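Retro notes (design track)

What went well: tokenization of the new backbones is finally stable.
What didn't: we kept losing track of which sequence belonged to which structure.
Fix going forward: every design gets posted as structure first, then sequence, in one message. First example under the new rule, 418 residues:
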């Protein structure tokens, strides 16, 4: 694993736990550039790769070759260095034998994975490892050609914090834009980060378990990403439908037409939206087809402009505008994501926070009491739906905070306010 630069010094470089009142980090007394929560993590990482990198690390990261790399390639460069150092640390005599062992090791599994499409592959510089460097010709190419299509972004509470290599997960899971599972990360004292794969719905015996490699909401660009970065054509139900319909029509630009389109989209996905009391029932199955008049909702510019309005209004108001736009976003998510997709839950949590802001500020232009009652109804529904979805995904990453804890806080605030 390798931490994103903004996380460096805030988390243990080995187990990725966040510094806190009970977790104190100390840095490596030689290079001062790796931080650990305790001796066990430090020793494990020293043995795994740090002893091969410690001496040259600061010179390498300060070099012009490293500094000139774009941010993602810097992370690749560090991760590749960790991987190579691990090869040398694990076997003194024959480091490269580890790549082809009969008994699979994580590294031999990694090197047996399908490589990505190689177009002008430029291998980033790695941390010098002394006389062994000569052994690396050809090997770096082999390892790096598997980075783009196999490596994972590690998150805590669904926010990215690091990149990592999980060879077994790479081996086991292909991609689908309508995935039936999602990856989450568990941090445990003195242990390497663990990936858990959570079923998002019931999975039949024999059915393939797939993860999303990229955000399925990139409806118009995702095939290009699969082609360039992963070297395959996705044929999931969503991509088969996209192939059949061809170019996505632009969403209406004229304000009245746009308003009408957004309203009919909300009513199409949530037919019970205008019922009393407020209710919002999310689809139970992924959409296999979408009616022609709803297709502009799949245009990437549509979600982009809705998200812009939502992010401003959900913080600064008017909150009624934010909540209406928020439901439109939810309708788009329901078309793009499979049921129980964690991002739907995260958006519902933002909706719940917005509804709470509206309750406490009394920011509404209707009859005050009726408006407050309606907002509280909405808030309860958002919290219930959000709990349903994020409860399936469960806790991940840091032990403190996180969306499930936030749901609990909002629930208590609501009870206190009633
Ligand atoms: C993380 S690996 C998945 C495991 C891979 N099957 C293996 O054993 O190496 C990623 C590669 O698997 C292939 N792959 C993943 N999902 C696919 C899909 N839905 N259709 C076709 N190929 C896919 C692509 O070659 C991709 O670059």
């Amino acid at each position: 694993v390798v931490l994103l630069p903004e996380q460096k010094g805030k988390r243990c470089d080995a187990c990725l736990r966040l510094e806190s009142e009970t977790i104190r980090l100390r840095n490596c007394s030689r290079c001062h550039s790796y931080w650990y929560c305790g001796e066990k993590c430090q020793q494990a990482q020293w043995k795994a790769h740090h002893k091969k990198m410690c001496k040259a690390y600061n010179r390498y990261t300060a070099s012009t070759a490293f500094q000139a790399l774009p941010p993602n390639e810097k992370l690749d460069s560090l991760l590749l260095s960790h991987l190579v150092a691990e090869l040398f640390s694990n076997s003194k005599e024959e480091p490269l034998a580890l790549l082809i062992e009969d008994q699979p090791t994580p590294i031999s599994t990694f090197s047996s994975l399908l490589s990505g499409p190689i177009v002008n592959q430029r291998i980033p510089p790695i941390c010098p490892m002394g006389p062994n460097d000569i052994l690396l010709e050809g090997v770096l190419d082999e390892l790096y050609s598997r980075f783009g299509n196999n490596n994972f972004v590690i998150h805590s509470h669904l926010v990215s914090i690091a990149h990592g290599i999980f060879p077994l997960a790479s081996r086991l899971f292909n991609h689908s834009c309508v995935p039936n599972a999602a990856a989450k990360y568990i941090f445990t004292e003195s242990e390497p980060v663990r990936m858990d794969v959570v079923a998002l719905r019931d999975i039949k015996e024999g059915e393939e378990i797939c993860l999303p490699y990229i955000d399925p909401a990139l409806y118009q660009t995702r095939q290009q990403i699969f082609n360039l970065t992963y070297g395959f054509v996705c044929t999931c139900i969503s991509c088969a439908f996209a192939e059949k319909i061809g170019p996505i029509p632009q969403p209406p630009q004229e304000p009245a037409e746009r308003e009408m389109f957004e309203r009919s989209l909300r009513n199409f996905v949530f037919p019970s939206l205008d019922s009393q009391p407020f209710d919002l029932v999310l689809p139970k199955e992924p959409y296999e087809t979408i009616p022609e008049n709803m297709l502009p909702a799949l245009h990437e510019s549509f979600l982009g402009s809705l998200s812009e309005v939502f992010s401003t209004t959900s913080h600064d108001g008017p909150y009624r505008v934010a909540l209406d736009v928020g439901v439109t976003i939810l309708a788009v998510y329901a078309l793009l994501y499979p049921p129980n997709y964690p991002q739907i839950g995260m958006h519902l949590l933002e909706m719940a926070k917005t509804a709470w802001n509206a309750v406490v500020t009394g920011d509404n232009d209707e009859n005050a009491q009726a408006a407050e009652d309606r907002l509280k109804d909405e808030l309860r529904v958002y919290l219930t739906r959000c709990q349903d979805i994020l409860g399936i995904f469960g806790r991940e990453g840091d032990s403190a905070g996180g969306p499930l804890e936030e749901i609990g806080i909002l629930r208590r605030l609501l009870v206190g306010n009633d």
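Added context from the reviewer: The beta strands are 2-3, 26-27, 35-36, 152-156, 159-164, 174-175, 181-186, 194-199, 210-211.
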